[in-house]
Amino acid sequence: MVAGNLFLAIFRKLHYFANLNGLNQIYTLILHDMWDKYIRNSQYQWHHIRIRAESSGVALNAHSSEVKEINVKGLKALSGKLAESILESVGITDDLNKSLAEVAALRTLIKEWGTKSYEFSLEKEDLNKKSRYNRLIKAHCYFGLKPNSSTQDSLQHLKCDCGGSTGALKFLLGELESYSNENIEF
C-alpha cells in the first residue's frame, strides 16, 4: 500500500472517529487506549514531548528540551520535581511514593488539565539490537478541546512525523483498526 492510500485510510478513520456522537475519539485513542497499552510496557518507550492545556484559569504550554546532559527530560522532570516538592512538604521521602506521585503529576498535566494538544513519540525495543529502540510513531495531537467553550480550539487532527517511512502510518492504521474493533459498535 503506497503512502497516499495509507493517508486516505487514516483520514477516513480519523474523520469518522472525530464525528462519532460528538465524542473526541482521537483524545480517547491516544490518551487512554494507546497510553494504557504502551506507557508501562517495558518493551516500549513513550516520550512526552509537548503539551498545551488550559484549566482552572491556568494555561500550560510545556515543551521538553533536547538537553542531553540531564538524565530525565522536560515534562517528566517537571512532574518529578512537583512530586518531590509536595512529598517533602509532608515528610515523605521514600522512592516508591516519589515514583507514584511523579506518575500522578504527569498524568494530571497530560490527561486531566484540559489538554488542547499533546506531542509524543513511541519507540519499541529492537530485539535484533541493531539499535536499542526503533521509533514507531512521533505525533502531535490536536484534540480541538477548549475548556468551558462551545467552540473548538483547533480542528481535531494528528500531525505525524513519519521520517519518510510508511511504518508510522501503518502503525497508526493498526491502532485505529484495533480501537474501532474494541470501542465502536456499528
Structure explained in plain terms:
The chain has 186 residues and is α+β, with helices and mostly antiparallel strands. It has helices at 3-18, 25-38, 74-89, 95-111, 167-183, and strands at 44-55, 58-63, 115-125, 133-142, 157-160. It has a five-stranded antiparallel beta sheet with strand order 2-1-3-4-5. Strand 3 and strand 4 (133-142) form a beta hairpin. The longest helix has 17 residues, at 95-111. The chain is globular, with a radius of gyration of 18 Å. It starts with a helix and ends with a helix. The mean pLDDT is 77.
User: Radius of gyration over alpha carbons?
Assistant: 18 Å
User: What's the helix-strand series?
Assistant: HHEEHHEEEH
Please give the count of helices. 5
Strand content: 15-25%
Strand order of the largest sheet: 2-1-3-4-5
Q: Distance N terminus to C terminus?
A: 26 Å
Specify the structural class: alpha+beta
Major sheet attributes: 5 strands, antiparallel
In total, the number of strands is 5
For the residues shown, what is the average pLDDT? 77
Shape: globular
Q: Which residues form runs of ≥5 with pLDDT under 50?
A: none
Residue share in helix: 40-55%
Provide the fold topology.
Blueprint: H1 3-18, H2 25-38, E1 44-55, E2 58-63, H3 74-89, H4 95-111, E3 115-125, E4 133-142, E5 157-160, H5 167-183
Antiparallel strand pairs: 1-2, 1-3, 3-4, 4-5
Helix pairs in contact: 1-5, 3-4
